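Box 4.2: Ligand-aware structure prediction
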Amino acid sequence: MKRRHFLQVASVGTYATLVVPSAMFSKSSKPKVMTVNGCIDKKQMGVTLPHEHIVVDFIGAAQIDTSVYNLEEMYETALPLLMKLKEFGCTTFIDCTPNYLGRSPLLLQQLSDATGLHIVTNTGYYGAVDHKYLPEHVKTETPQELANRWIKEWEEGVDGTNIRPGFMKLSVGNGPISDLQRKIIEAGALTHKATGLTIAVHTGGNGAVLEELNIIEQQGVHPSAFVWIHAQNEEDTAIHLELARKGAWVEFDGLFPFNYQLSEQKKQEYLNYLQMMKREKCLHRTLLSQDSGWYDANKPQGGRFLPFHLIFQDFLPLLRKEGFTKKEVNLLLKENPYQAFAVRKRLKT
Ligand SMILES: [Zn+2]
């Protein structure tokens, strides 16, 4: 296991500097996934958790200051749990903590270097929870101006580093969604058209997802560029099927190990979702994750940091017992995450 001191972080990230996005994603080569250490292909990506968090910070956009974080402590807390995850065969970890909520690209890069896990970070803004995590400029800027900020992060790196985002993490609350949330989604579609980055949106219930997809499609972007984060928030399962049939990615990602274990009830709930998607021939549009981790920057020692490996230890055996084949499990954990997150433009024809 390699170990670097955080005082040396300015010198790391050499892989990322070698990558030129426009040249890298030429039509002749297969689409790649962008990690904090540069791009990887499908085979390198392997078994992937598409929605987890190392750090979170709920203080709000007005007060957040990631420069005061105790990166050493965050690193020491996360490292053993990521090593444990790797033991279970996971090779890629998609970190869904956005800007203004604790995004820490250098920490992710250090953890990737130490564990050998591929880790992906993001660009974009989080509009749910009464806009608490939105910077002031969202109110005055146009969707294109917001998109320009995210496109710049793709081209140059995030937070003054040369670490590139691998997707957009956006967010809206329950439907009907607010004007600012609509603006963010439109900015996401504009960014996709310029960069090919996937638009992953934390989404509340009550039909919010239909409003999102409408905005994205109006901009000429194909639903396959859209990941519906927290699809389990929507009670109407007809909407899950409708979105999958349109080509969008339906992500059931709350297999959260409450009290450090997966409850029987939770496992059954997720089994039901996956059985429904399988029965309706929508498994090829389905993503699965835990939304676990959560070193809380405002709690002593980060509060309760939850493990990442329980999906492999406690849920996959149940899936196999219930008749999911190796091929179907690979679809959920390898093929689908690659297809969802590989960077390329997906436009409506
Ligand atoms: Zn999350």
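In the box above, the bound molecule is zinc ion. The CA atoms of residues 7 and 257 lie 34 Å apart.
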